[in-house]
Amino acid sequence: MNAQPDGPEGRLRRFATIWSRAVFPVTSTSATRPEFEEQLLPLARRLSQALRARAFDADEAKAVGAALVTVHCTDPEALARTLDCVDAYLVLYCGEDGAQEDLRARAGRLQHAMAAGFAEALRERTLAEQEAIAQAALRAQGVVAQALHATEARFRAVFEGAAIGIGMADLEGNILQVNEALLRMFGITEQTMRARKVMEWTHPEDAPQTWKLYDELIRGDREHYHVEKAFYRPDGTVLWTNLTVSLLRDPDGNPQYQLALMEDTTERRLLNLRLRYEATHDALTGLPNRTFFFERLEKALGAGEGQRFGLCYLDLDGFKTINDSLGHAAGDRLLVEIADRLQSCATAPGEMVARLGGDEFVALTTGPDTEREVDELAARIMNAMIAPISIDGRDLTVRGSIGIVEGPAGERSPAEVLRSADITMYRAKSAGGNRFELADPEADARAITRHGLTTALPAALDRSEFFIEYQPLVHLGDGSVRGAEALVRWLHPQHGVLGPDRFIPLAEHTGLIVPLGRWVLEQSVRQAREWQDKHTGAGPLRINVNLSLCQLTHPGLVQDTVDILERMGVEPEALCLEVTESALIGADDDLLKPLRRLHEMGVDIALDDFGTGYSNLANLRRLPVSILKLDRSFTQSMQQFPADPVDLKIVEGIVSLAHSLNLGVTVEGVETGAQAEQLRILGCDTAQGWYYARPGPPERLHELALVDATG
Question: Distance between CA atoms of 166 and 174, rounded to whole angstroms?
Answer without folding.
Answer: 14
